[in-house]
Amino acid sequence: MAFLGYTHEQLPKWVKKVEQFPVVLYILKWVLIGTLVGGLTGIGSALFLWGLHWATEWRGGHQWIIFALPAGGFLIGACYHYLGQSVVKGNNQLLDEITKPNRIIPLKMAPLVTVATIATHLFGGSAGREGTAVQMGGAIADQFTKIFKLDKYDRKILIITGIAAGFSSVFGTPLAGAIFGLEVYIIGRMRYEAIFPSFFTAIVANYATHHVGHYFGISHTEYLIPTEVIPEMTLENLLLCVLAGVAFGLTGMLFSKANHFWGNLFKSKISYPPLRPVIGGLVLAIFIVILNFNHGFDYANYDLKYFGLGVPVIVDSFTTQMDWYDFLMKTLTTSFTLGAGFKGGEVTPLFYIGSTLGSFLSTHISLPVALLAGMGFVGVFSGATNTPMACTMMGIELFGAPSAVFIAVACITAYMFSGHTSIYNSQIVGSPKHVGQDNEKGSTLSEIDVIRAAEKKHIEQHDKDKKDNDE
Question: Where do the TM regions start and end (predicted)?
């Protein structure tokens, strides 16, 4: 482990004899780096959130812009095709660089994804913001690899701090952001050697975003689970939590599979990348018109509840029982938007999907609507990202400690039931979720389908040979 180019072996002997001295150097190093990474990422996130707020407000007053979705799609697709092919993998590229370091992440990842995400929301696409902030943080962080002459070991930690900073700052959840950075790249494991850098950087980033955002009039949305509605944790309520968690996990799996389905479909059918979001944008615009057929072409009165971030719907789901199809519609519009090549995160749409599903489930599960909405908010996210600890902490930070046990049970159950699927195909299976999946340990999620297809073929061939021998 190097500190500004000096390895442990190069330190004086008297320094090595003091057990805590290397720790002091380690802390000083990551305080310096974490302050820079967290500060820059936090400022970037604040500016991004301001731009996102502007785009959402402007679109709300000029809803005719949805008819320009194909044009917006072409601009985004062309930018990435001609300027951003080296960063087109997005979040998966960050995870790849942690597990299989190859080259410094180009800094242009940050401005490209920021502008493309704001454009996606401006034109009316359905996407989130987490992916953008995480990519921004990862790209900014990795630039310090050469500046501080970090080795491969420290570079992995550096990228983790960037991920933590991006997540923390965009949602205002520093503890969840820190754990997310430690947990996201390998399923079932955490990088404890990065625990101090991740937490320190996440806290700095959140601080920077809060203060810069305040200057621009930007703040994080507050969600409420009233303490008085939270029931006692009885055996019955525990089982109801597990039942809800099953639904959240399966929904997270559905979202992940839908995301990859649309992405693979567009890639297989349209060879010219800039054309994919053009076709996708046209389909989305037509779909919006169909959903609002009662208004004809009176676009000013169109209901766009399934597009954009959908924060107002998320807030409403804590007090109002939602329709059964709301979470399905958001799953469709978001997976299609991102699969077509528009840019943005998946996490805020997952909040929407989870909170509306939880709200609907309150008609069948005897738990308060606000509690179920909160459980779904983080539960579906847990299932779709395989980060149950980060999601549990996020629930505690957003909703308060009184709901912690309910949140934890929902997140862990959702994680178990989502299987080896994720919105991040570059995640590695560090600890298989179920018995009988040991052969998938160490594989990325994108490799698992190949493994399972080979196993299926082997079984079919074995059965065929056995049948032939019997005859």
Answer: 23-52, 64-83, 157-182, 194-217, 237-256, 277-297, 365-384, 396-417
